[in-house]
Amino acid sequence: MVGTAVLAGGTLLATPGSALADPQEGLGHETKPGQPYRGNPQPERDWLGSYVVNGQQVWCVQFAFTAPDSGEEYRPGDELKTKWGEKIPDDVAANISYLLLRYGTTQDADKAAALAHLLHSWTSAPRNAGDLNPAKGFKDIAYDVDGHLAKLPEGAKNAVESLRAEAVENRGPWDAALTAPEEPQTIGQAAEWKLTVERAGDKGVGDVPVKLNVTDAEVEGLGEDGTVTTPEDGSPLALKVTPTGPNPKITGELSAPADRPYVQQAVNQPDTTQRVVSTGGEKQLTVEDATTAVTAPGVVQVGKLDAESQAGIAGVALRVTAPDGKPALRQDGSELVGPDGQPAVVTTGADGTVSVPGLKTPQDVVITEVAPAKGYEESFDAANPPSVAGKLEPGQTLTLSLTNKANTPTVPIQIPAGDPGVTAGETVEFGEMSLLGAGALAVAVATVLGGWALRRRIGEGGQQ
Length: 464
Hints:
The protein is of the alpha+beta class. Helix content is 17%, strand content 30%.
């Protein structure tokens, strides 16, 4: 995992008034025997690894200078150069910055020894064969690169090659970006944001921790410390972000390898003590993006029912509006209108219902009958058409219903076949007639038939 070693941008200070202590070695390996040079205080061994200064793990350069005491006081120094005061090539400086950032807090002895070896190889390598002359003193002796590598354990040797290759592959400069979805999100519904950390050539860098600060949203898998880590293969990290408010926003910060590493120089013994290399993480990158979020859309479902049977009435035209008569709003905020630009009209289906989905929430919706269905004309008042209203909540279905009374039933009048002028077996409809008219006609027919029967009986009885 990428870590920020403890010396980034800081200063190592001994406790005022305290005496210096002996050097304290951290993690790494010793190489035996030590490299020969004039005045070597420990000819039996050399140390390749970290040191502990004021309780912190540090890394040193300037091979053969005195190791730092555990209470050494350090002040920020200059850009890291070779032991001979020469500028380090840009690519090598980038390698150093990356390795300090990535392994400055390592707890692996092989990697610690490998890092120390590479630092000395890049800053104190011999310029010519004479720089390895054992007659030289600590200020002038070069680091025997091949000799020290040969004395390292096999695991550390392997780590040297893997760290070197990794540095070339992943060194800075880095670029980081956070991208929110193009479309507005829906509150309460997760969508994918993309976090990328890339090096030169648009190649992704893996295993990079990024500290996030989240507003109006929740991020799935976010640790308690607010940190996420890019995938090991360097692919973009997909963040599942669920808005909790209207303005989701995420900012992030990560440590990237500095363009060039800097050193911190010992104050107590500036001309004899090894310099401490600052970490590669002084360069902080930030990422940020934001979007908007809307509430979940809602659905209005309307049923048109017969007042007596409660059966659905098909083919009823209904207008959908806001309470002020303006069009209702779709989820994207646009007006729900028909081809004529007026508030949309929907028609009930065979079951007497119709649904209007994708509406913005929350909003008040009014459903008004535009024209009656066939057979329900009598109860329809065009000046005051039936309507119903309700409030549509986020993600909900608002169920509304309207009832209509059927027209007053009518009774058809039928005359039996055989009446003068009517063919036998035919039924004649006289159209619609009220129940009162039908009764009067029945009385009149009964009266006529009764009188005819009475006259017949009189004729048959002679003089009665």
